[in-house]
Design a protein that fits this description.
By secondary structure, this protein is mainly α. The protein has helices at about 15-20, 30-65, 70-95, 100-130, 130-155, 160-165, 185-190; strands at about 10, 30, 170-175, 180-185. The protein has a single domain (about 10-190), classed as Helix Hairpins, CATH 1.10.287.
Length: about 190
């Protein structure tokens, strides 16, 4: 941070502060310019997040029409019944087998079939538990929270430092004094 004679805060490149002109040129930018660029950046990002919320809401409406969860539950019930039938059939065939060679062949054959059926059951259970709609609704809530942070920063004349630290990871100032903002990774992943 640089203090000026006119009491106007400014910021410069960290390499310049550390190594002087040996490593970098002075990329000094006034604090008010950074705030103006930040607010525009957050307004732009907010518009993207609002579009994403609309897309998610459309996706949720489409999922309601399909009633996907009930279909998956029915498939899971059928797979469980098929597995039970498979095991009972295996027991019957093993009981009717006359020698150890037949029993081994029956065991190996049913082993693969049982494995496939168990994998199907596990997959269906996991799919039902994740509940896509719930995940989408959580994503919408996170996007809305991020938008609230953005709005609070944009509306304030001098944004709260804690709020800025929750949203911004890093600020880059180039030689031509263009400013780039890097959001926190958890906020970037929302879209």
């Amino acid at each position: 941070m640089i203090k000026r004679k006119v009491k106007e805060k400014g910021y410069d490149c960290s390499k310049y502060r550390q190594f002087s002109t040996k490593a970098c040129h002075c990329h000094e930018v006034k604090e008010k310019d950074i705030l103006i660029h930040l607010k525009e950046f957050l307004k732009f990002t907010k518009r993207q997040y609002l579009k994403e919320i609309q897309n998610i809401k459309l996706e949720i409406k489409q999922d309601k029409k399909e009633d996907n969860k009930y279909k998956l539950q029915n498939k899971l019930n059928m797979a469980n019944e098929e597995y039970k039938m498979l095991v009972s059939q295996k027991i019957k065939e093993l009981a009717s087998a006359t020698n150890s060679m037949q029993k081994e062949i029956i065991e190996n054959t049913y082993k693969e079939l049982e494995k496939e059926k168990r994998q199907t059951i596990t997959y269906l259970k996991a799919t039902i538990e994740t509940d896509k709609k719930k995940n989408l609704e959580q994503k919408v809530n996170k996007l809305k929270t991020a938008i609230e942070y953005f709005d609070e920063i944009v509306e304030n004349q001098k944004p709260n430092r804690m709020m800025l630290q929750m949203v911004i990871n890093k600020i880059y100032i180039d030689k031509d004094k263009t400013i780039q903002f890097d959001l926190k990774t958890d906020i970037k992943k929302l879209i």
